[in-house]
Amino acid sequence: MKTNIVTTKTTICTLLLLLLFSTSLHLSSAAATVTCNTITTEAAPCLGFITGKVPRPPAACCTGLKQIVKSGTTVTARRAICQCMKNAIKEFPGVKEKFLSQLPKACHVSVSFPISSHTNCNKVH
User: Fold this and answer.
1) d(Cα 6, Cα 54) in Å, to the nearest integer?
2) Which of 1, 41, 70, 89 is most buried, judged by most C-beta within 10 A?
3) Cα separation values, 3 from 10, 11, 16, 17, 86, Å
4) What per-residue confidence (pLDDT) applies to 3?
5) Is 45 helix (H, G, I), strand (E, B) or coil?
6) How far apart are CA 85 and CA 80, in angstroms?
7) Which residue intervals define the domain Bifunctional inhibitor/plant lipid transfer protein/seed storage helical in the entry (predicted)?
């Protein structure tokens, strides 16, 4: 009977350690990548500009765009950012392609791909 209890406790401890280890790995990799939620949050101040309601993007918009671009350190990250941006564009009614394409220049930010709902994110390098 004691052997079964010891074996059960050992198994539970091992499973808990594996769970903790896998959770910490997941959190580490998640912290190293940007999420679509982060992109939406960073880009939200741009909404007035990309819908044509304000003539210039506010400072918070440009700061957010710079942060987004800065997080695109790999091709995979840039492709993910591109896809997140495309998804976000679809979520906001009234976004105009004309203003999307002007955003990087208006913010003095170099973006390695066109910001557009038509960008093929698989071709982003």
Assistant:
1) 68
2) 89
3) 10, 12, 20, 21, 58
4) 55
5) helix
6) 9
7) 36-121
